[in-house]
């Protein structure tokens, strides 16, 4: 090839088969999100033993469990603009070190107040890691496989949380609840230096920032050996620059409506995912009249459906209209949520519907992350994905209060689930609205054209 002309790095990635180096980046993204999943879930694993050892009430335990969610929201809002200014790599490595350090410090908490503060600080790092990991993976992925590879990286969250569950079942009885925090903090601290050595910077970011051609070429040669020479220079598809900052860009007239719609969609998706994760056992036990074991089984099946749903939705988004896929996932989840409310006396159907709801809701939440990385240009991709994640976390926080309020109102089992169809249907509507607006408006260069 003629190496004297400019090489479009996005076209280079799109025109080649997926290579080993790109799969390596996906694995590192999976690892980062897996560590994130472990440390997000860790307080749930230690909560029963912590409550007994410190003689805490359920009300006193609430802030301990929810503090990280507040930190997650703040961390995502802060980290996105930083990643668009200073790079994905430095923010990711720093976030892993940050949440590892504060998780380790949490093991030495002496009271509830101290633990809440430390979990809030931990959440800042956790919130920075996930959306920026997905951004980095998306920028090494070819467009035709981007959504699926992002969802593969996101499968790390379930793997990390599940692995933490198995470890806690052994470690807490043997060594106490402190041991899980020590492990959950030490592991990221050990991984962070390795990430600094092994994790590449996004070539799209480097080109957008005008980095030296030699630095870009080193990464290009790992992706496509022989595709460039010392005389090559690199470029990206041009994107309309309508603002001086990444936050200004995602809120500019060209992106504003889409931004508001992805915020609303992700808010609703996380509201439902966290509400079902937290409240389904109690809803099945008290609303359905089942025992603790049966309620736990229904909830476990909800969680089992999640990874399969995420991968299926990501695969489908690469092959079909991504907006239609997400609308169907939201609408299908709404139908299953209504059905589970009508299956009070049929335990087998409860299990089937719970698995289906986990499939659909987790598919929508992870699919929304893939959609955000496709919607925004390189100059604001990390901010767009991170701010969507940060706004969505408020839906997760609200779910705790909504579940408690439904229980306090004394609604019947069918009434509770009939009410929960509404946010799922609203999610379908906002994604449909964004898809229709996208059809009427020209695609911005620099984002993925569907």
TrEMBL record:
GO terms for cellular component: plasma membrane. One of its GO terms (molecular function) is carboxylic acid transmembrane transporter activity. InterPro entries: MFS, MFS_dom, MFS_trans_sf, Sugar_transporter_CS. The keyword Transmembrane helix applies. Keywords: Membrane, Transmembrane, Transmembrane helix. Residues 25-439 form the Major facilitator superfamily (MFS) profile domain. It holds the Pfam family MFS_1. It is a multi-pass membrane protein. This is MFS transporter, AAHS family, 4-hydroxybenzoate transporter. It comes from Pseudomonas panipatensis. The lineage of its organism: Bacteria, Pseudomonadati, Pseudomonadota, Gammaproteobacteria, Pseudomonadales.
